[in-house]
Design brief:
Blueprint: E1 2-3, E2 8-10, H1 18-25, H2 37-40, H3 44-50, H4 52-57, E3 66-71, H5 74-84, H6 102-111, H7 119-123, E4 134-137, H8 141-152, H9 174-183, H10 185-193
Parallel strand pairs: 2-3, 3-4
Antiparallel strand pairs: 1-2
Length: 195
């Protein structure tokens, strides 16, 4: 969601509240990509390759705006994916997790049997360097939205939950949690360094 006229672009990392932000700020944006999901959730590297030259031609050099996104604790993000994929309409499909414990889902993620994008890949370039200018933690959604509202000169929103996942109890055994955190160590670094 590009608001280069206000000096920022929001990159929509999956499972971090970007749909709620689009719902509030979309009417102020120059460009909002909603579909397909692969475009809505384009990585920072894809944005830099595809959109930066375009905005440059429109009079918005890369130095005139910041990129920003939200990042979630990697265990919480995995739990959110597990809950999201347990929706009844996915029953019988390959990604359905309704009959699977979070412990099993996390073990499959570590073993490579479940594929999810990573926060590190989302915010980094091919060399592994973080290229997103401003990264907020998911639990700081209110502060992130207040910063965006300030840039736009509008009142900060009261964000209602949208695109929320079914409520499920998702506990992890200590061993699986340790393996998951090791597997997502680069994501944990991104999360810990976020605002």
């Amino acid at each position: 969601m590009a608001m280069t006229q206000a000096g920022f672009v929001l990159l929509s990392m999956p499972k971090t509240g970007s749909t709620a932000l689009q719902g509030h700020f979309g009417r102020h944006a120059q460009v909002v990509v909603r579909n397909p999901p692969g475009m809505k959730h384009m990585t920072a590297s894809t944005f830099e390759q595809m959109f930066t030259p375009w905005f440059e031609r429109l009079g918005f050099p890369r130095t005139s705006y910041e990129t920003t996104c939200l990042v979630r604790h990697p265990v919480d993000r995995a739990r959110s994916w597990w809950r999201y994929r347990s929706r009844p309409e996915l029953a019988g499909k390959r990604n359905y997790t309704g009959a699977m414990s979070f412990d099993e889902f996390a073990a499959r993620l570590v073993d490579g049997r479940v594929a999810l994008g990573t926060a590190h890949n989302f915010v980094s370039d091919a060399t592994g360097s973080v290229i997103v200018d401003r990264v907020y933690r998911h639990e700081s959604l209110t502060q992130a939205s207040a910063w965006m509202a300030g840039r736009l000169g509008i009142a900060a929103p009261e964000l209602a939950g949208v695109n929320t996942s079914p409520e499920r109890e998702g506990t992890l055994s200590a061993g699986v949690r340790s393996r998951l955190e090791q597997h997502l160590a680069a994501d944990l670094v991104i999360y810990e360094s976020a605002r």
